């Protein structure tokens, strides 16, 4: 009994505490939004896989949240390992969070050198309070030359731009990994994951 | 930081990170601090390579070593038994999802100056050059006996009462000679010395079963090793703890551990702030006055540009030198990993030699092991003290783990962790407390 494994790509969220990484994560998992007063920060969020169908190809995006470790300490370097894409999140109303993006970019480049990097300005619903302009974002990307593969603006509150961003990332990952996926089908995977022996690999259930 | 916690954990070594994860999972409010800027303490993997050379005050590595950040060098070498305690912990806590492993390619044992593959099944036993023809048959019978042995089923005992028969008697019953007993006890059962011979045989039988069950899981050897080095393990458990609400603080020098008049811990002072706690968990380096030195461990990191000779060019391997072979009281271990585990630059190998120190010249003690490795490009030697806590922590509510021993696998590490957890909480860890729905499921 063989099942075709759908290629899975690890996508990590990076950025300052409070810019809305977990909100993006919640939008991704359940398309829900919870206000600050309703939740207890990033408790219990780990990672979540969702299937995308791009160009006749299936792909799973596996989105990872930081677990709130950046609140006082740094994130572990293993968070970045094996990442295929990283979303640098900042808050459009907070120039400080935007200025810190370069620091997070450095971490991504050193720990996950093959990851595609995306820039995401969150909280676009705060219209009048927005302090980081499109020009600022463009200037940043220019400084980083080819490092940033795409920029987005999103609002987790209204949901605007969120699905578009993830679909776009899924599309780019399918594009850039086309040959790699073909190869993986033919060759055995490199590392192995330890798991219960009884566990059989989840056969692909019905998609969304 | 100015808050009250159920538990404060000091040090982010593997043991403390597992404990922190287990406490957070059990619903405790945990603050986890480390004096270093990085996670892992002694169990961190050092990267980039320049950092390792600086640590040992060696001149910077030249360009032949490739890119410094392709290296992740462990300071405490260990492998995971595929069916062992740590893998069980990883699976039950879900931490396995943060890691990828590779099976270690070969397991060897030293006999009379050269190394041979450790035979583990009947077929390998018959092909092995460790034994003569008749001895092979006897060893095969012994292996079959161990495989069929069930502690709860006296019918499988073949007159060997697990509690009242010692292991020397079992060897005698099967007619195994000293050499066979030697590699069975040290390379299969992974005993560090010969004290086991006089002890009830059930422990050794269990250990041999663990070895062969581990072998049956993923292939050529019973050992696993994580990609990017062992430093990934504490980080995985730290993430688990954080996901369940644990708070992490790095780069926090611990100024003082505060006790009340009855000697019970009440908090930890750091940088002019005080965090209060009901319990404290830590490694020995945070409480020098509450631990005692019981022995020393010597470890030698060897960087090489070739695999170990006579191992069929294995990219990862373990070699055990049983104590008697080199007139010692404790075994010498060699574990080697390489660029295929993302711990070294392309074409490079890292061999680690470790053992318990018995003389005043630890470097001379490990010479038989170094001689097996072939030319070594760079060598770093460390002798560390092995500490154990002086108290069980019941009165002070300070629960201290032991230092990391010389064994090349994590079985003793896990036993210590489970023991510390039991001392601290008064109960065994309940694996069912871990939710398994932390992501991972498809929509």
Automatic annotation (TrEMBL), chain A:
GO terms for biological process: autophagosome assembly; intracellular protein transport. SMART domains: RAB, RAS, RHO. SUPFAM superfamilies: P-loop containing nucleoside triphosphate hydrolases. GO terms for molecular function: GTP binding; GTPase activity. It comes from the Eukaryota. PROSITE patterns: RAB. InterPro entries: P-loop_NTPase, Rab, Small_GTP-bd, Small_GTPase. Keywords: GTP-binding, Nucleotide-binding. GO terms for cellular component: endomembrane system. Pfam families: Ras. This is Uncharacterized protein. It comes from Daphnia pulex. The lineage of its organism: Eukaryota, Metazoa, Ecdysozoa, Arthropoda, Crustacea.
TrEMBL record, chain B:
Coiled coil: none annotated. The lineage of its organism: Eukaryota, Metazoa, Ecdysozoa, Arthropoda, Crustacea. It is found in: Cytoplasm. InterPro entries: FAD/NAD-bd_sf (IPR036188), GDP_dissociation_inhibitor (IPR018203), RabGDI (IPR000806). GO terms for biological process: protein transport; small GTPase-mediated signal transduction; vesicle-mediated transport. This is Rab GDP dissociation inhibitor. Keywords: Cytoplasm, GTPase activation. GO terms for molecular function: GTPase activator activity; Rab GDP-dissociation inhibitor activity. Regulates the GDP/GTP exchange reaction of most RAB proteins by inhibiting the dissociation of GDP from them, and the subsequent binding of GTP. One of its GO terms (cellular component) is cytosol. Its main location: cytoplasm. Belongs to the Rab GDI family.
